[in-house]
UniProtKB/TrEMBL annotation, chain A:
Pathway: tRNA modification; 5-methoxycarbonylmethyl-2-thiouridine-tRNA biosynthesis. GO terms for biological process: tRNA wobble uridine modification. It is found in: Cytoplasm; Nucleus. GO terms for cellular component: cytoplasm; elongator holoenzyme complex; transcription elongation factor complex. This is Elongator complex protein 4. Belongs to the ELP4 family.
TrEMBL record, chain B:
This is Elongator complex protein 6. One of its GO terms (cellular component) is elongator holoenzyme complex. GO terms for biological process: tRNA wobble uridine modification. It comes from Nepenthes gracilis (Slender pitcher plant). Gene3D superfamilies: P-loop containing nucleotide triphosphate hydrolases. Pathway: tRNA modification; 5-methoxycarbonylmethyl-2-thiouridine-tRNA biosynthesis. Belongs to the ELP6 family. It holds the Pfam family ELP6.
From TrEMBL, chain C:
The keyword tRNA processing applies. This is Elongator complex protein 5. Pathway: tRNA modification; 5-methoxycarbonylmethyl-2-thiouridine-tRNA biosynthesis. Residues 328-375 are annotated as: Disordered. Its main location: cytoplasm. It comes from Nepenthes gracilis (Slender pitcher plant). Belongs to the ELP5 family. One of its GO terms (cellular component) is elongator holoenzyme complex. GO terms for molecular function: tRNA binding. GO terms for biological process: tRNA wobble uridine modification. It is found in: Cytoplasm; Nucleus. Keywords: Cytoplasm, Nucleus, tRNA processing.
Length: 415, 306, 375
């Protein structure tokens, strides 16, 4: 709505302004000086940016949904892979548009993401794949460590971004509908997008990935990707590799991504060295924080002792967990809408609190993982199917229904 | 989404120690009271006073005349869990001891969980400029984000890193307390003790030893010690580690989530236990709920928030 | 009863027997062990200073508190400092137990050092139990000037000793203290929940009297843990608790005693256990706005309330609840009005008379309107 009001105000201005608007989109320059009379129209929430930049934000990050909360700062618009967040933090995409939305914009630079694996289902791999593929598409350095013998083979399974025809996320279409009032400018929006796209093939903040299509080979060879097999390396050498990797990429604009799969897998040499692992995670956290990179670690938490599992969870900035859902469970199918499409559940336990003391309160903490058209990963709030009149309860809020879900099935939160 | 528990809403606080009379009187005037978490002057805790028609949970001091306790050199332990972080208590203690007009305190901050920029931004929104205080030598910051105590090639853990860190802390304390011109008090804050344990690989007692030495500063120089730790990681055989800290803590602050789940209006609840063992005074326990804002904390008794 | 303990310690050891040794145990639910320790220590020191005790001197091994703390405790009565110096020695294992400060001072990083004073001697390596023992003995012998007289040893935290040394070496130190002819008695504090069962058992085995500080609400142990925590918090808040003593007597019997204590402004006070459960209940129950239990008066009042239909069995006047007077009553008390007479006639048969108002009523409206209800 705020967006709409803003656009109306723009439209009220002289038509001649339009030329200016477009030029400023392509040049990304703050032109508030050139437009002194634009200033009074600005909504207080977006006071720190000029109108064209606000429009830019709408074009560039259509899927964010909450851009009005986050005033744009600095020159991050030069790098579409980064998005300014609140409190001076910078977001980087998780590779899953819905997850970005849930977390308020994505992963904060400098944060450590920990994913608690389900002992049975490989859903953490979905998160990991999208996380890595997003980085590669955006030409960011990547370090991947895995307990398998040949970690490089895993790169072949990374998904590829969808083609431009279908890459519009579903809600983007809705948003376009909402912008009908500016229909006559629509072509210019498209134009603006084109200019972005032309610079580097489809460089978007967050891509939708087609899980059935492997990533093109040239992307894999574009930037050196470090792959480490944790099976034959000690924890110290892993630490060294990580710190070297982060030291290689000092430039802030291009954050590196570190992905570590199944960190405490039992076949590893340091599986029993609980303290070594905690100490590694602690130092990795420190390194990432000071070098503005992002790391994602998945770990089978059931293999750790409870107290160490808690330690790990405390170390995480963002803590997620994935869970399998039982197959062909009639009771569940009756209770949840869209049960057939669900492949698992995602829980958000902790959201990064960087540069702030205020917790980010989610409306719901449990989400269903669905594969739309069997190829794109979608996260949705769990909705309870309409229940029989006998129970007489029909609250609609997702938070409530997810709570109920957990209670009624006695599932723990994974902690 | 969910509101605070309905059961809690019905209850009205009855007996909250010294504040009880005042509170019931005020209830007739206003539908609910706002509690402010404040620190005045030197230290002390859980002293409730009424100022400007507002209740303050004041951390009183032994300079302000009203204080009953002589509490120079107390140990404050803050415990939290994964669901509810208590880091905000630290920010507020820093803020209050630096920006309260009566206080001339110096904060020595051992940071293991965040870089300076984080604290700077958080505190700036609370109205306290850490960078300026750092230049004035009132905020002494030790960036221990990369603290590692693994010495040599054999991977053996050495205590040298911690000894060195302690030496630095004591040196600062000595410098401050040697300045005669103002009677300054020193507060040593350790942001996340569990990370110190991780830095020494959890082996042997180095972490506890370090803590013990920090404690000796409280009796030697009258400085106070604030430690943040996580309660839920000490389970089973590790439980004594946190119990040991609880034994020597004079004040214990526990942050817990609401029993009814996450809520947008109430972020959790705090229990303050004023153990006060050295002064043979009555203990007092206070518990209240809180909501965090960018510029402060709102504290209120369960059910007094609409 | 705490006085019994003090007396036992004051009287000391008989020749050829082990010296009495008191272990004070507490838990985090009732962390008042130090208060009890202080109480006994101050009693004992006043006996010693007055020359009434078997021991002539007191050696305090300070692990968990700074020596200056003890000055406060011992100086309460305003005792002459010279006398204190002659009778009391403190081995400071608190300020620099591992020699870190010494090391830092040597390398010039920090400047403060801890010179031994007349009363306080610093121990810089507490990990070496043998050396610790010899330091204690040395201090004690200094007090009694090499004579045959005896001294008392108080260790303020065995828990800290366990942190630095193994179970066997700590137990060895304690038992060699007990068996030394020059030690008239010893006293130590243990936080029992910080140690496993074996450590607790070893310490109890080594001592002749065990004093256990417990929360006052032990009978509620069966409650859920969460509740228990809440109650122990209340206990801590009120500063109340129970002090159990198990004393191994010379004749082979075990004397068991319980006492209540209360920590107030003036320090700790002991009193015999109050028999009234009521008073316990009153302090135990959480103070909330609504009542969980009824007071006696309320219970009496409640028992007086006549429940609906209860009166019928007693053959009393039928009373229809809801404030209306019953028929019998109205008969007895007031002259019946015309309506009442009519009604009473019908009431005997229990029939319902229904006269159809008009022909507009459909015949089937005579039927019970609810007869399709399937109850």
């Amino acid at each position: 709505m705020r967006m709409l009001r803003l656009l109306k105000k723009i439209l009220e201005l002289d038509f001649a302004l339009r030329g200016l608007l477009i030029t400023s989109i392509s040049s990304n320059r703050n032109c508030s000086q050139a437009l002194p009379h634009v200033q009074p129209f600005l909504n207080p929430a977006v006071e720190s940016r000029s109108v064209p930049q606000a429009v830019m934000a709408a074009i560039k990050v259509p899927s964010s949904g909450s851009f009005s909360r986050n005033p744009l700062v600095g020159s991050t618009s030069q790098n579409p892979a980064l998005k300014p967040g609140p409190n001076g933090s910078v977001f980087i995409s998780s590779g899953i548009p819905d997850l970005d939305k849930i977390l308020g914009g994505g992963f904060c630079l400098g944060s450590l993401i920990m994913v608690m694996e389900d002992p049975e289902a490989p859903h953490h791999m979905l998160l990991l794949r999208n996380f890595m593929a997003q980085g590669l598409v955006q030409n960011q350095p990547l370090l991947y460590a895995s307990p398998s013998k040949d970690p490089r083979a895993f790169l072949g399974t990374l998904p590829s971004p969808m083609l431009s025809q279908d890459n519009k996320p579903h809600d983007r279409v809705e948003q376009d509908k909402g912008l009908r009032i500016a229909w006559q400018y629509k072509k210019y929006f498209e134009e603006g997008e084109q200019t972005l796209d032309n610079r580097d093939n489809k460089l978007e903040y967050c891509n939708d990935f087609d899980l059935r299509k492997p990533l093109e080979r040239h992307i894999l060879t574009r930037k050196p990707i470090e792959c480490i097999s944790m099976e034959d390396s000690t924890i110290d050498s892993l630490r060294e590799r990580c710190s070297k990797f982060l030291a290689q990429n000092p430039s802030k604009s291009c954050a590196g991504r570190i992905a570590i799969q199944s960190f405490c897998a039992p076949q590893l040499e340091y599986f029993n060295k609980d303290w070594d692992m905690v100490s590694f995670i602690k130092s990795l956290k420190g390194m990432i924080r000071s070098s503005d990179a992002v790391a994602m670690i998945t770990f089978p938490h059931s293999l750790l002792s409870t107290s160490f599992s808690k330690r790990w969870q405390h170390l995480a900035d963002i803590l997620l967990s994935v869970r399998a859902i039982p197959d062909d469970d009639k009771e569940l199918a009756n209770l949840l809408t869209g049960y057939q499409e669900m492949v698992g559940l995602l829980n958000v336990h902790k959201v990064a609190r960087i540069n702030t003391q205020v917790p980010f309160v989610l409306e719901a903490s449990t989400f269903s993982i669905k594969l739309r058209k069997r190829r794109s990963l979608v996260l949705e709030c769990i909705n309870q199917a309409p229940v029989d009149g006998s129970s007489g309860i029909s609250y609609g809020t997702s938070a409530w229904s997810s709570e109920l879900f957990i209670i009624s099935f006695g599932m723990d939160n994974g902690c | 989404m969910s509101s605070p528990s309905i059961g809690a809403r019905r209850r009205r606080p009855v007996d909250w120690g010294q504040a009880s009379l005042n509170l019931t009187r005020a209830e007739n005037q206003t539908p609910f009271q706002r509690w402010r978490f404040d620190l005045e002057g030197r230290e002390g805790f859980a002293q409730k006073r009424k100022t400007n028609e507002e209740y303050c949970l004041v951390l009183t001091n032994n300079h302000s005349g009203t204080t009953l306790l002589n509490i120079g050199g107390r140990v404050l332990l803050i415990e939290d869990c994964i669901e509810t972080s208590a880091a905000f208590v630290i920010y507020h203690i820093v803020k209050c001891s630096l920006s309260s007009p009566r206080s001339s305190g110096v904060v020595i901050f051992v940071a293991l969980s965040h870089p300076f920029s984080h604290y700077d931004r958080v505190l700036r929104k609370l109205g306290c400029n850490l960078a300026v205080h750092r230049d004035n030598k009132r905020f002494i910051f030790f960036d221990m984000l990369m603290l590692e105590c693994q010495g040599g090639n054999d991977g053996n853990v050495t205590k040298d890193g911690l000894v060195e860190l302690f030496g630095k802390i004591q040196k600062e304390v000595e410098v401050i307390s040697s300045k005669q011109e103002s009677e300054r008090y020193v507060m040593v804050i350790i942001d996340d003790f569990s990370l110190i344990e991780a830095a020494v690989n959890g082996t042997s007692n180095h972490g506890s030893d370090f803590l013990h030495y920090c404690r000796t500063l409280t009796s030697e120089f009258g400085s106070s010690l604030v430690i943040l730790n996580h309660e839920d990681i000490y389970l089973g055989p590790e439980r004594p580690l946190i119990l040991q800290m609880e034994y020597f803590a004079d004040i214990l602050i526990k942050a817990q989530p609401l029993a009814t789940g996450v809520a947008a209006d109430v972020h959790g609840q705090l229990t303050v236990i004023n153990r006060n063992s050295r002064h043979l005074l009555k203990n007092s326990i206070t518990s209240f709920q809180f909501k965090l804002n960018e510029n402060g904390i709102e504290c209120f008794f369960p059910g007094t928030r609409t | 009863m705490a006085d019994y303990v003090c007396k036992a310690l004051r009287n000391g050891a008989l020749e050829g027997e082990l010296a009495p040794a008191l272990t004070i145990k507490d838990t985090i639910h009732s962390p008042f062990g130090l208060h009890v320790f202080d109480y006994i220590l101050s009693q004992l020191s006043s006996f010693i200073l007055a020359g009434k005790a078997q021991s002539r001197g007191l050696v305090i091994v300070a692990f968990s508190r700074s020596p200056s703390c003890y000055d406060e405790i011992l100086n309460k009565g305003g005792i002459d400092a010279l006398l204190l110096d002659r009778c009391i020695q403190i081995l400071d294992c608190y300020s620099d137990p591992l020699g870190w400060k010494h090391q830092l001072t040597e390398s010039g990083i920090i400047s403060s050092s801890y010179p031994d004073s007349v009363r306080v001697k610093v121990c810089r390596d507490v990990r070496n139990s043998g050396e610790l023992l010899s330091r204690i003995m040395e201090l004690g012998k200094g007090l009694v000037e090499g004579g045959k007289e005896q001294f008392f040893v108080a260790i303020d935290s065995v828990t800290e000793m366990f942190r630095h040394a193994s179970l066997s070496s700590v137990a060895g130190l304690l038992s060699s203290l007990r068996s030394n002819v020059q030690v008239s008695g010893s006293l130590w504090l243990l936080h029992s929940d910080l140690h496993d069962g074996s450590a607790n058992a070893v310490i109890e085995y080594t001592s002749s009297i065990v004093g256990i500080v417990e929360e006052a609400s032990m009978q509620f142990r069966s409650w859920q843990n969460a509740n228990r925590e809440g109650i122990s918090l209340l206990d801590q808040n009120s500063g109340k608790g129970k002090f159990h003593v198990r004393s191994k007597r010379r004749n082979g019997r075990v004397k068991l005693m319980v006492e209540e204590f209360q920590i107030g402004q003036a320090g700790i006070t002991f009193k015999p256990v109050s028999s009234e459960e009521e008073s316990v209940n009153r302090t135990l129950l959480p103070k909330v706005q609504f009542n969980l239990q009824l007071s006696e008066k309320e219970q009496m009042d409640r028992s007086k309330v006549v429940l609906p239909f209860e009166h019928q069995e007693r053959g009393k006047a039928e009373q229809i609840y809801g404030g209306r007077r019953s028929l019998m009553e109205s008969k007895n008390e007031m002259p019946p009005s015309a309506e009442n007479v009519l009604m009473t006639e019908g009431s005997g048969t229990g029939q319902i008379l229904y006269v159809r108002d008009s022909d507009e009523d459909l015949p089937d409206s005579d039927e019970d309107p609810d007869d399709d209800l399937d109850i």
